Backbone:
């Protein structure tokens, strides 16, 4: 029994070294800046839902804080000006819980320099949705938001897709009811 404290210490060290254990209560905290506007992106919470907070500074008048619940874990954030209008957008990447790790983008555009307007990423449809089972990766690439994911064929296990990869490039466009990310090109490799 005299080795018991060492066993507990070793077990605790091992538990903190396992990447999957980071999910419970995982937090994201990143500050991004573009064109004189700073975004502080934070998440908190436990389980499959987290509280996302976006604070914006540098705008006159001040921009109201965004607080919303997201289904999954915040795994990244980027700032860009995809429409080249001189006003930045913030893109927050969320990965859902579960084996599919379905991706979601929570995004806002600065409009008139004084407020944030939501940006919509449409659901995958038609040929773009064929073989889709999650495992999304998002990244700003030059003047588009790139979404990449594995393509699953019938009979593939969730751990091994055999259909290659699909990358969709989205351009930011002004829509009738706000901002929309529209697919502009698709590459399969």
Residues:
């Amino acid at each position: 029994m005299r080795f018991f404290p060492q066993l507990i210490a070793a077990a605790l060290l091992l538990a903190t070294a396992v990447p999957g254990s980071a999910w419970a209560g995982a937090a994201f905290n990143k500050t991004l800046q573009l064109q004189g506007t700073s975004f502080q992106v934070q998440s908190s919470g436990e389980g499959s839902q987290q509280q996302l907070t976006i604070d914006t500074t540098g705008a006159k008048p001040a921009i109201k804080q965004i607080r919303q619940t997201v289904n999954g874990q915040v795994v990244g954030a980027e700032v860009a000006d995809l429409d080249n209008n001189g006003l930045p957008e913030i893109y927050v990447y969320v990965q859902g819980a579960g084996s599919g790790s379905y991706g979601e983008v929570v995004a806002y555009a600065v409009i008139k320099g004084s407020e944030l307007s939501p940006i919509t990423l449409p659901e995958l449809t038609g040929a773009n949705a064929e073989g889709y089972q999650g495992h999304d990766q998002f990244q700003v690439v030059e003047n588009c938001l790139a979404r990449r994911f594995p393509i699953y064929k019938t009979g593939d296990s969730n751990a091994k897709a055999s259909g290659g990869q699909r990358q969709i490039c989205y351009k930011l466009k002004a829509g009738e009811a706000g901002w929309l990310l529209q697919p502009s090109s698709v590459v399969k490799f």
Remarks:
- The chain has a mean pLDDT of 86.
